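R.M. (postdoc): so does anyone remember the format we settled on? I'll just put the structure tokens first.
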């Protein structure tokens, strides 16, 4: 996503949330390369449910080659004609690509001053793009820090209705080991975010 860059003082917890959204976006936008695998292998999670999922992903990354990751990614998301999973909100919510969820997202992006990145060909409702958008809103990457209430509205409108389902499908896929671990981490994080937002007043 394209963005105006402004520096804000961000709460460390919110910065950590943003970094995890960015991390998931990085892992899902394209096949991970050797550098990313090495970085992931160096991570160490704590003893929380989310931390344990990160530890598993780190260990799997340590024994995954870039060639294996690319084969997994292609089987999952590209395939011959189409992959095993279509990581788009429109598909998960309607069964078709480029449907009303995408139009609603584009309208919301325009309202929030979020522009499509130059050279980006994927529809904006790709899971990686949505992770990137949430990360950017939290830390003010799109011109201003988004309030928690507006983060909740965006999450509950564009992410929660399908992302937990998507990450669960990814976790359960027989085509993936590394990306299955990404799915487990993503599912845990989406569940945590959904629970936290649901505790906020409407």
């Amino acid at each position: 996503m394209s963005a105006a860059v402004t520096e804000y003082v961000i709460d460390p917890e919110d910065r950590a949330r943003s970094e995890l959204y960015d991390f998931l976006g990085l892992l899902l936008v394209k096949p991970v390369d050797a550098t990313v695998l090495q970085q992931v292998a160096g991570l160490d999670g704590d003893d929380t449910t989310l931390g344990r999922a990160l530890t598993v992903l780190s260990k799997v990354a340590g024994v995954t080659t870039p060639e294996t990751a690319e084969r997994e990614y292609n089987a999952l998301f590209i395939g011959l004609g189409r992959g095993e999973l279509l990581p788009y909100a429109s598909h998960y919510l309607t069964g078709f690509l480029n449907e009303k969820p995408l139009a609603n997202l584009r309208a919301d992006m325009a309202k929030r001053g979020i522009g499509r990145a130059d050279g980006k060909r994927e529809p904006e409702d790709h899971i990686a793009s949505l992770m990137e958008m949430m990360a950017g809103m939290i830390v003010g990457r799109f011109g201003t820090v988004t309030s928690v209430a507006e983060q909740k509205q965006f999450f509950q409108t564009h992410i929660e209705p399908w992302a937990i389902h998507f990450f669960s499908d990814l976790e359960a896929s027989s085509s993936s080991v590394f990306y299955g671990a990404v799915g487990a981490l993503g599912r845990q994080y989406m569940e945590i975010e959904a629970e936290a937002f649901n505790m906020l007043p409407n």
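R.M.: ...and that's the designed sequence above, right after the tokens. Also worth knowing: The chain has a mean pLDDT of 94. The chain has nine helices and no strands.
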